[in-house]
Design a protein that fits this description.
Two copies of one chain form a homodimer. By secondary structure, chain A is of the alpha/beta class. Chain A contains nine helices and five strands.
Chain lengths: ~200, ~200
C-alpha cells in the first residue's frame, strides 16, 4: 500500500495539489471525508469538529487536567475528537488501498506505514492571491484581515503539531519533499511530484 | 538562460544530484571549477581558497574592522576571496548558457537571474553512510568523528549564509524544492527533479 501525506501552509494550494496527485496516480483521496466521519461518529457538526481540532485549548486543557486528575471521564472534548480522528485515519489505512491524505498530521499518525510525506509552502503574495481567488463571490475581506487569517491558521497548525512531534511543523527533516508553489500553476507540478513519489516508493517499499 | 542552484547539507548527496541533473538536462556544471578560478585569480591554492571561504572569521573580522576603520585596504583576505568568488559566479552567468551550480550561496548571488533553487537534505544515518562510501580507502575515521565533521561543515555553511541572508540556511521559504535523499538512490531522483525544474522554468521564464 502506498500512502502520500500532504501537509501545507494555508493558501499554498496543498489541498488542490493533493487532490490532483490522487487523480493522477489513481489513489483514493481523503480530506474533509475525515471530518465527515468524525461528525457522524461523535454526533457533532463538521464545523464543530474542525473547530475543536484546530483551536488551541492548551491552557484550558491544563486546568481540566488539574481538576480531573482522578476523573479521566472528564476528558476535554477536543482530546476525544482528536482520538476519534486518529482512529478514523488508521481505519482508512487498514483498508489497504493506496491513498493521498491532506493535513491532520497524517504523516505522524501513519508513520508506521512509511508514507511519502510532502509539505507545501508558498510566499505570502501567492497565498493571498490564492485565497482571494478561492473566496466566495461578494466576500469582502481586506488583504490585512486575510493575512492575519493565514497567519492564525498556520500558527494553530504549528502548535497542533508541536503537541505530537519534536520536529517543528514545516521543518525539512520531517518531510521527503518540500514544494514551493509560489507563482506556480499547480497543474504543471502534478506530474513531476507524482514521478518523484513513485521513485521514492520504488526505493522504500 | 536557465540556472539551477543546489544548496545541500554535507553528505546529503547534493553534489552528485547536481552533477547528474546537469548531465540529464545538458546544462553546464560548476562546483570545484569556481575554486579553481579563484585560486588562479588570487594566486593561492584551491585548498586555501576553500578554507578561507568556509572558515568562520567573524570575530577576527570584527577586530580588523575596528582597527582599520579608515584603512579599507586592510580588508580581511577572506572577504577579498569572497568578492572574487562573487565576480567569478557572475561571470559564469554572463556567458548566457544554462548551468547547474552547487553550493557557494549561488542562489543568493544570482537571484537577479531567477534561478531554480534546490536544497538537499538527508537524515544523519544516510549522511554517515554516504560519507563512509566516499571516504578514501584505508581512511580510518570513527562514526563519532565523522558526525562531528558533518555538523561542523553544516554549521559553517549556515553561518556563512547568515552573513548575506535573513532567511536561515535550509529554510523552506528560501528554496523552490527541498529534496530529502534519506535511503534514496540518487539516480532515481534525477528524472523527477529535472521534470520539476522544467515545469518551474515553464512557469517562471
Amino acid at each position: 500500500m502506498r500512502i502520500i501525506t500532504v501537509s501545507r501552509e494555508f493558501g499554498s494550494g496543498g489541498r488542490e495539489l493533493g487532490k490532483r496527485l490522487a487523480d493522477a496516480l489513481g489513489y483514493d483521496y481523503y480530506d474533509r471525508e475525515v471530518l465527515t466521519a468524525i461528525a457522524v461518529k461523535c454526533d457533532i457538526s463538521e464545523d464543530y469538529a474542525e473547530y475543536m481540532l484546530t483551536h488551541d485549548f492548551s491552557s484550558g486543557y491544563a486546568i481540566t487536567m488539574r481538576n480531573s486528575f482522578h476523573t479521566p471521564e472528564l476528558m476535554h472534548p477536543a482530546t476525544k475528537i482528536m482520538r476519534v480522528q486518529t482512529d478514523i485515519i488508521r481505519e482508512i489505512a487498514k483498508k489497504g488501498r493506496d491513498f493521498v491524505i491532506v493535513g491532520r498530521n497524517a504523516d505522524l499518525l501513519l508513520s508506521g506505514y512509511k508514507p511519502f510525506n510532502i509539505f507545501v509552502t508558498a510566499d505570502i503574495q501567492s497565498k493571498l492571491k490564492r485565497c482571494r481567488e478561492r473566496a466566495a463571490e461578494g466576500e469582502n475581506i481586506s488583504d490585512k484581515d486575510m493575512l492575519s487569517n493565514i497567519k492564525a491558521i498556520d500558527k494553530s497548525r504549528s502548535k497542533n503539531r508541536a503537541m505530537i512531534s519534536d520536529l517543528p511543523w514545516g521543518d525539512r527533516r520531517a518531510y521527503h519533499l518540500i514544494v514551493n508553489t509560489s507563482d506556480m500553476d499547480l497543474k504543471a507540478l502534478v506530474s513531476p511530484v507524482a514521478a518523484y513519489a513513485e521513485a521514492w516508493f520504488g526505493n522504500n517499499t
